[in-house]
Specification:
746 residues, alpha+beta, five-stranded mixed sheet, four-stranded antiparallel sheet, 22 strands, 47% helix, globular
C-alpha cells in the first residue's frame, strides 16, 4: 500500500475530519528535501525528526518552509484550500509574511507552534500561508482590505476570508491570548468561528463591502487633471515643513530612509539653487551613515530606525534598501563632493558582493533581524551589537579603546545591555580625547573593522532569505552600473553585467521574465515591478558600457511590459498581466513606498528610451501614464515621489551625451568621463562607444550616434538637446564648461 504523510509523521492535531494528503505526497516529501535538511520547530520526536509536517514542506519559499513543521495544517495558496473551505463550510485564514520578518517569527512561536491554538484552527478554519515577496499581488489586495477596515498595515498580515476569497476581517500581529495589547489570537478565532456560523449574512455583507472598497482603492481616480500642472515645489514644501533639522529625515519615529526623497531634493536644488534643499539632503545622508541604521562593521543599511536619531535599527537588511540607497549616496556625492558619501557607496557594494551574492551572479533578498543566542533562543540584533569587553578581548586594550570611543560602545549600552555601533564623535575628537594622532586613529579604525567583521562572522548568522527576485536584482544592476560610472569602478560594472546575465539566462524564457529564482528553478510570472526595475538596470548598463545588447534587451522587455500590463483605456500599468491569477481586484500601483512603484519606474524608463531611440511611441506612453496619475500627483504628490523624478525629467530639457572613442581605445574617453562624473546632470542619457562595430551596432538603435566619430586617437564628446548639438570637443576642460553651461550644478 502506498504510504501517506500520516504514516511518516503523527497526525496534525484537529485534522481527523480532513481528507488525507494526495497519494503521491509521501514520495514528493521524501525526494524534495535532501539529507542535510533540518526541521525548524520546537516539536521534535526522540529521533530528532519533526513531530509535525504539513504541505508547506513541498514548497521552495524560505518563508513557507519556516512553517512546514508547525502543528497548523497549512496550505499554500491555490484552488485546493478554497475548494475544501467551500466543501466543509469553513472560513479561511490567509496569513501573509516574509522570511526575515521579526513579528512573523514571534507570532509563529507564540501561536502557530502552539498545539492548542493549532488544533482549534485546524478543526474550524482552513489555513493558508503566503510569502508576500513571492505573491505581492495577494499581499496588496489583502493589505488594502486591512486599510479599508481602518487598521494600520504591517506583517504578519492575517486576513479572514470566505471560500470565494472575499475578506471579512483582519489584523496584523495578535498575541496568543488576551492581553493589554488587545484580543488574543485564540479568542479571536473563537469569535470569528461563532460569527461565521451564526450570522453568515453579516459575513457575506462585510465581504462584499470590503471587496468593493479594495477595488476602489487599487484603481486610481480618474479626472481631467493634467500632470503638466503639477508643481514639484508643492511636494518639496511638505518635506521642508516636516524636516528634522537635527537628525535629518522627517521628524518623529520610526525613521525610514525612503520617507525623505533625497534624489528629488537634489534635483530641485540643482534647478533652483535653494541652499536649504542641499542642506536637507546632505545632513540626512551623513546622519544616516553615522547612525546605528548603518552597519558600521560590515557595511550596508538596516531596514529602518525605531528612534528619531537613526540609532536603534530594526536589524533586517534588505537588498532593495541597499540598492536604492547606493544610488542616493552616489547622487549626493556628485552634488556635494563629500568623499564620505562615496565611501558609503563602496561599502554597500562590498557588503552586497560579500554577504548577499548568489552563485551565478544574482543577489539574495534579505537577512533576518534575529540571530541565535548561546541558549539557542532567537534574539533581535544580537549579531550586530557589542560590549567593551568583546572589543578589548579581540582588539587589545589600546585599539579597543579607540574603537569603543569612536563607535559609542560603553558598558551602559544602548540596546538591551549591549551597544549598537554608531558615530557621534569625529576622528579628530577621538584623537584629542585619547591624546593620539589623527592618522593613528584612522589606521586603527580601518584595521579594527576587518578584525571585528571576521570575529562577528563566527557568531550564529542571521537567517538569509535566498530567494532571488527579478525586481530587486534589477535595482542592484542599477546600483552597480551607476557606481561603476560615477566612481570609475570597473569591477562594479562587471558585477552589473553578471547580474543582468543571470536574469536573462536563468529567469527569462521565450521572452518572458520570471518573478523569482529558488532552489535552482525560475518561479512565477514576473510582475510589473520585475519588468520595470530590470529594464531600468539594463538602460543603466547600456549607458556605462555602450554595449548595444543591453539596450536591445531593454527594448524587447519594454514591449512585453506594454503588451502585458498597459491600461489601454486610461493609461498607466497594472501590477499583473494575462499570465497571472485573477484576484478579487487588480492593482494599478499608485504609491511609492520603501520600493518605488512599477508605474513610476516604468514612466522614467519610457522617457529615457524615447530620448535614446527618438521613438515617439515611448513618449506618448509615458505622457498617457502621467495623465492617468495626475489626480494623485496634484492632490498628494508625496505619495508618488519617485514619479516626480520622471515628471522632472519630462519638464526639464533632457540632455543627450555622446562620447565616441577611437576603435578599441575606450580608455581614451576617461579624460572626458572625469568631467561628467564631477557634475550632477540627472536628466540626461549617455552613450559611450568606440568606433567600429560597437558604434555601428549602437547607431541602429540610437539615431543620434549616426555620423559621430572620434578625432584621430582622441575621444570626442557631443552634448546635445532638442536634436541640436554643441560643437564637439576632445578637450576635457571645454567639455566641462559645456556641462556647466547646460545647467549641471557642480
Amino acid at each position: 500500500m502506498e504510504k501517506s504523510l500520516h504514516d511518516l509523521y503523527p497526525e496534525l492535531p484537529g485534522t481527523a475530519d480532513l481528507p488525507p494528503p494526495p497519494r503521491d505526497h509521501f514520495e514528493k516529501l521524501r525526494s524534495r528535501r535532501g539529507p542535510e535538511y533540518r526541521p525548524r520547530t520546537r516539536h521534535l520526536r526522540q529521533d530528532g525528526l519533526a513531530k509535525y509536517t504539513n504541505r508547506l514542506f513541498l514548497e521552495t519559499s524560505p518563508y513557507l518552509l519556516q512553517h512546514a513543521h508547525n502543528p497548523v495544517n497549512w496550505f499554500a495558496w491555490g484552488s485546493e484550500p478554497f475548494d475544501l473551505a467551500r466543501q466543509l463550510g469553513r472560513p479561511v485564514l490567509v496569513s501573509i509574511g516574509y522570511a526575515t520578518c521579526h513579528w512573523c517569527h514571534v507570532m509563529e512561536e507564540e501561536s502557530f507552534e502552539d498545539e492548542e491554538i493549532a488544533g482549534f484552527l485546524n478543526r474550524n478554519f482552513i489555513a493558508i500561508k503566503v510569502d508576500r515577496e513571492e505573491r505581492p499581488d495577494i499581499d496588496t489586495v489583502y493589505m488594502s482590505a486591512l486599510h479599508a477596515m481602518g487598521i494600520q498595515g504591517g506583517w504578519p498580515l492575517n486576513v479572514f476570508v470566505t471560500a470565494d476569497r472575499r475578506p471579512f476581517y483582519g489584523g496584523t500581529y495578535f498575541p496568543p491570548h488576551d492581553h493589554t495589547r488587545g484580543i488574543g489570537f485564540m479568542s479571536l478565532l473563537a469569535r470569528l468561528r461563532e460569527v461565521y456560523r451564526s450570522d453568515p449574512e453579516r459575513v457575506t455583507r462585510a465581504g462584499l463591502q470590503l471587496t468593493e472598497a479594495v477595488r476602489s482603492m487599487l484603481a486610481p481616480a480618474r479626472s481631467e487633471a493634467s500632470a503638466g500642472k503639477v508643481s514639484l515645489d508643492q511636494a518639496v514644501r511638505t518635506y521642508r515643513d516636516r524636516f528634522d533639522r537635527v537628525n535629518g529625515g522627517l521628524t518623529g519615529a520610526p525613521k525610514f530612509p525612503s520617507s525623505l526623497p533625497l534624489r528629488l531634493l537634489l534635483r530641485r536644488y540643482r534647478e533652483t539653487g535653494e541652499s536649504s534643499l542641499f542642506s536637507m539632503a546632505h545632513l540626512t545622508l551623513r546622519r544616516m551613515a553615522a547612525g546605528g541604521i548603518y552597519d558600521q562593521v560590515g557595511g550596508g543599511f538596516h531596514r529602518y530606525a525605531t528612534d528619531e536619531r537613526w540609532l536603534i535599527p530594526h536589524f533586517e537588511k534588505m537588498l532593495y534598501d541597499n540598492a536604492l540607497l547606493a544610488v542616493s549616496y552616489l547622487e549626493g556625492y556628485q552634488v556635494t563632493g563629500d568623499g564620505e558619501l562615496a565611501a558609503v557607496v563602496g561599502e554597500i557594494l562590498q557588503y552586497l558582493q560579500r554577504d548577499m551574492a548568489a552563485p551565478g551572479g544574482g543577489f539574495y533578498s534579505a537577512t533576518d533581524a534575529d540571530s541565535l543566542s548561546s541558549s539557542g533562543h532567537r534574539e533581535e540584533g544580537l549579531f550586530f551589537t557589542w560590549t567593551p569587553e568583546e572589543l578589548f578581548e579581540s582588539l587589545g586594550r589600546e585599539r579597543g579603546e579607540v574603537v569603543a570611543a569612536y563607535y559609542g560602545v560603553d558598558r551602559a549600552g544602548n540596546f538591551e545591555g549591549r551597544s549598537i555601533a554608531h558615530r557621534d564623535s569625529s576622528v579628530e575628537e577621538v584623537a584629542r580625547h585619547l591624546k593620539l594622532g589623527e592618522e593613528k586613529v584612522r589606521e586603527t579604525l580601518q584595521e579594527s573593522r576587518q578584525i571585528l567583521y571576521r570575529l562577528r562572522s563566527r557568531r550564529p548568522l542571521p537567517l538569509r532569505d535566498e530567494k532571488i527576485l527579478a525586481s530587486w536584482n534589477g535595482l542592484a544592476i542599477s546600483a552597480f552600473a551607476r557606481a561603476g560610472l560615477i566612481l570609475n569602478l570597473p569591477g562594479a560594472v562587471d558585477q552589473a553585467r553578471s547580474t543582468a546575465n543571470f536574469l536573462l539566462e536563468k529567469m527569462t524564457a521565450g521572452g518572458w521574465l520570471a518573478h523569482s529564482h529558488q532552489e535552482g528553478e525560475a518561479k512565477g510570472a514576473a510582475f510589473l515591478d520585475d519588468y520595470a526595475f530590470f529594464i531600468a538596470g539594463l538602460i543603466d548598463l547600456f549607458e556605462v558600457t555602450g554595449e548595444a545588447w543591453w539596450l536591445e534587451r531593454s527594448l524587447k522587455l519594454a514591449a512585453v511590459a506594454e503588451g502585458e500590463f498597459a491600461d489601454r483605456a486610461a493609461g498607466g500599468y497594472f501590477m499583473t498581466g494575462s499570465r497571472h491569477e485573477e484576484l478579487i481586484a487588480r492593482e494599478k500601483p499608485a504609491y511609492d513606498g520603501v520600493v518605488p512603484s512599477g508605474n513610476s519606474v516604468m514612466i522614467m524608463n519610457l522617457l529615457r528610451l524615447n530620448a535614446l531611440t527618438e521613438e515617439p511611441g515611448y513618449l506618448e506612453q509615458a505622457q498617457r501614464a502621467l495623465h492617468a496619475f495626475a489626480p494623485q500627483l496634484s492632490s498628494a504628490p508625496t505619495a508618488l515621489c519617485e514619479m516626480l523624478l520622471a515628471l522632472d525629467f519630462l519638464q526639464d530639457t533632457a540632455k543627450q551625451v555622446v562620447i565616441v572613442a577611437p576603435r578599441g581605445e575606450r580608455e581614451a574617453a576617461q579624460g572626458l568621463l572625469v568631467k561628467l562624473r564631477r557634475v550632477f546632470l540627472p536628466n540626461r542619457t549617455l552613450v559611450v562607444v568606440c568606433e567600429g562595430a560597437e558604434l555601428d551596432r549602437a547607431s541602429e538603435l540610437v539615431p543620434l550616434l549616426r555620423g559621430k566619430k572620434a578625432q584621430g586617437d582622441r575621444a570626442v564628446a557631443y552634448l546635445c538637446e532638442n536634436r541640436s548639438c554643441r560643437l564637439p570637443t576632445s578637450d576635457p576642460e571645454e567639455f566641462g564648461r559645456q556641462l556647466e553651461e547646460s545647467g549641471a550644478r557642480s
